[in-house]
Design goal:
With about 400 residues, this protein is α+β, with helices and mostly antiparallel strands. The protein has helices at about 40-45, 55-65, 90-100, 100-105, 225-230, 270-280, 305-315, 340-345, 350-355, 370-385, 390-400; strands at about 20-25, 45-50, 70-80, 85, 130-140, 150-155, 170, 185-190, 205-210, 210-215, 220-225, 240-245, 260-265, 290-300, 320-325, 360-365, 405. The chain has three domains: about 5-15 and about 120-245, Beta Barrel (Elongation Factor Tu (Ef-tu), domain 3), CATH 2.40.30.10; about 20-105, Allophycocyanin linker chain (domain) (Dna Ligase, domain 1), CATH 3.30.1490.170; about 260-405, Rossmann fold. It has a six-stranded antiparallel β-sheet, covered by helices on one side. The chain has a five-stranded parallel β-sheet with strand order 15-14-13-16-17, sandwiched between helices. It starts with 19 loop residues before the first strand and ends with a strand.
Length: about 400
């Protein structure tokens, strides 16, 4: 999904950019290095690896390949004398304390710590973009649908690009504009989880609809520069990527949270990432147990992007996932007009209102800006039944970080 509003955040920098981190690792298989008698793994079962921020992802992959498990990640920071030291303790101290007692060995199994996730921002900038490569470009609109929309997957294995569900990346189209200058970047919501569609930390995916409209003066058909460039990419072709950017649409780490998602068209992109994270990955550090409800508005049934996968998830996880469609050119609302997403919200307003009031519920809106007014109107009517002013309540959940909007 093209995400112009995320551009406001594209100048942010991550506070971790120049920092070092210490990985505590157990279980590395023995090799010439670890077989040394004085190596840390021989003394405590743990080794400590200092890693620059820019290499964190690659080091995690290397450790996994060697059969290791990361027990904890701590920032390396200056001590009182200005010398570099561990945030908690020096590695030698940690090794001495890491040796379990006989009782601990018997009664307390080792568990993996869950460090708080940092938010990567602007690892790659327009003046120094990452050059990725297109792996696949697949049509998402079925026969009889309107327009073209592609699911694109890019190889990012040769760089340091990291991202989280709900973030966006910038794409710089090849070529120049009518003034002979390089094209400006466009931002698109990421449609894959942080581990990529292949779950190997080597890819990133987008959901892109080709922009097409009539010129207001000439009547000629105009095609979007970047969307056309992406939709026409062939496997093997390179492209320039910047980012990631965005903190507004991040998925909460709480696996028991309730997630309400309202999308139109390619606004499904971040929610595909959410749902794949919740239900397809089954990652050991994130087992979703809440309720995910997607309300999805499109023009025709062939335009329901990722329909088969969505309905497979609903069938496999009936207690945790629910999908509701608003198909404007095929369904009628209660007044006999076209069915838009706001009409579906109105139909389920009381149920949605009850769910939104739960402290662990996050609501996300992504897609066309015009749908926001109708959604607010429907929830206003539901809240009034309990003598609550929706606009005031909405401000409180925005402040609490539970109301997320990315529209264009």
């Amino acid at each position: 999904m093209y995400s112009p509003s995320a551009a406001a955040n594209s100048g942010n920098t991550t506070e971790f950019g120049n920092r070092m981190f210490v990985y505590e690792v157990v279980g590395l298989r023995q090799n010439e290095e670890t077989d040394k008698t004085d190596y840390a793994i021989r003394r405590s079962g743990s080794i400590f690896i200092t890693v620059p921020y820019s290499r964190m992802n690659q080091e995690m992959q290397r450790i996994t390949r060697m059969g290791g498990k990361i027990v904890s990640i701590q920032p390396l920071k200056n001590d009182d004398n200005g010398a570099n030291g561990s945030a908690l303790k020096q590695p030698a101290q940690a090794q001495a304390q890491a040796q379990p007692t006989p009782a601990e060995k018997k009664d307390k199994p080792m568990t993996q710590a869950k460090p708080k996730t940092d938010i990567p921002v602007n690892i790659y900038r327009p003046n120094a973009p990452f050059v990725g490569r297109c792996i696949s470009n697949e049509e998402l609109v079925k026969e009889g649908g309107i327009g073209t929309c592609r699911h694109l997957t890019f190889d990012i294995s040769e760089g340091d690009l990291r991202y989280l569900e709900g973030q966006s990346i910038g794409i710089i189209p090849a070529g120049t504009d009518d003034k002979g200058k390089p094209h400006k970047l466009r931002l698109y919501s990421i449609a894959s989880t942080r581990h990529g569609d292949h779950l190997d930390d080597k890819t990133i995916s987008l959901c892109v609809r080709q922009l097409e409209y009539k010129h207001p003066e000439t009547g000629e058909t105009v095609y979007g520069v970047c969307s056309t460039y992406l939709c026409n990419l062939e496997p093997g072709q390179e492209l320039k990527i910047t980012g990631p950017v965005g903190k507004e649409m991040l998925l909460p780490e709480d696996p028991e949270a309730n997630i309400i998602m309202m999308a139109t068209g390619t606004g499904i992109a971040p929610f595909r990432a959410f749902l794949w994270r919740m239900f397809k990955e089954q990652h050991e550090d994130y087992k979703f147990k809440g309720l995910a409800w997607l309300i999805f508005g499109v023009a025709t049934t062939p335009n329901v992007l990722y329909q088969e996968q969505l309905e497979e998830l609903q069938k496999e996880f009936p207690d945790n996932f629910r999908v509701t469609y608003a198909i404007s050119r095929e369904q009628k609302n209660l007044e006999g007009g076209r069915m838009y997403i706001q009409h579906r919200v109105a139909e389920h307003a009381d149920e949605l209102w009850e769910l939104i009031q739960k402290e662990n519920t996050h609501t996300y809106i992504c897609g066309l800006k015009g749908m926001e007014g109708g959604i607010d109107e429907a929830l206003t009517a539901a809240a009034q039944k309990q003598e609550v002013t929706w606009s005031e309540y909405q401000r409180t959940i925005k402040k609490a970080g539970r109301w997320h909007v990315e529209t264009y």
